[in-house]
Amino acid sequence: MIKRLGAEFIGTFWLVLGGCGSAVLAANFGGDGNPLGIGLLGVSLAFGLTVLTGAYAFGHISGAHFNPAVSFGLWAGGRFPTRDLLPYIVAQVLGGLFAGFILWQIASGSAAFAPDPAAAGNFASNGFGPLSPGGYTVAAAFLCEVVMTAMFLVVIMGATHSRAPAGFAPIAIGLALTLIHLISIPVTNTSVNPARSTGVALFAGSGALSQLWLFWLAPILGGLLGGFLYKALGPERPDVVGDN
């Protein structure tokens, strides 16, 4: 169990550092119109790449959840034991917080770093209403996070099914997360992962912290929905991560 929790900690750290780091450090590098900035497309791809590389690195150790919503979804789908839920979630949140801390230390090394707690997407945080990049309402943000997380779980469970092509699951999962970000960055700055949201919200200020509840509730509901939905599509009994 210690090795699996360590893998979840490092994997979540990598996801938050890579994904949120691309948003904070590289998305608008040099200002608007600068070709060196990676923009929305680059940030979306960065999140996908962190999951893809992390899954190949740690999937054989912990299952590469890196996300409390994924752990809940796999539990709902019959792929993950109840006894491991809380330890996994603690490890994921701690990994996200450590990534937020490291990212803050790096970003603070630039004189141009000027975080604004009232700004949408401050320090790669998630939000709705005035803290949504596109000004979307709480209802729109909630629906978006539920649906995107549910579909993420459907892809995860399908790609890791015992009958799926072996060795390709991380590619499908990484591309799915990239697509999710391409769709939903304007709405919520894309969470679908409570550990990712918590990891930067602690440093982003009171605005992000006050809205953090949505980015726990909606992704977990979406994860449960996706897990139950995929399980209902047909009988299966793949190996359960955590039984060893």
TrEMBL record:
Organism: Marilutibacter maris
Quaternary assembly: Homotetramer.
Designated name of the protein: Aquaporin Z
Listed GO MF terms: water channel activity
Major location category of this protein: membrane
Family that this chain belongs to: Belongs to the MIP/aquaporin (TC 1.A.8) family.
NCBIfam families per the UniProt record, alphabetical: MIP, PRK05420.1
Keywords: Cell inner membrane, Cell membrane, Membrane, Repeat, Transmembrane, Transmembrane helix, Transport
Intervals of motif NPA 1: 67-69
Record's keyword annotation contains Hydrolase: no
Domains as described in the record: Aquaporins contain two tandem repeats each containing three membrane-spanning domains and a pore-forming loop with the signature motif Asn-Pro-Ala (NPA).
Transmembrane feature ranges: 36-58, 85-107, 136-156, 168-188, 208-230
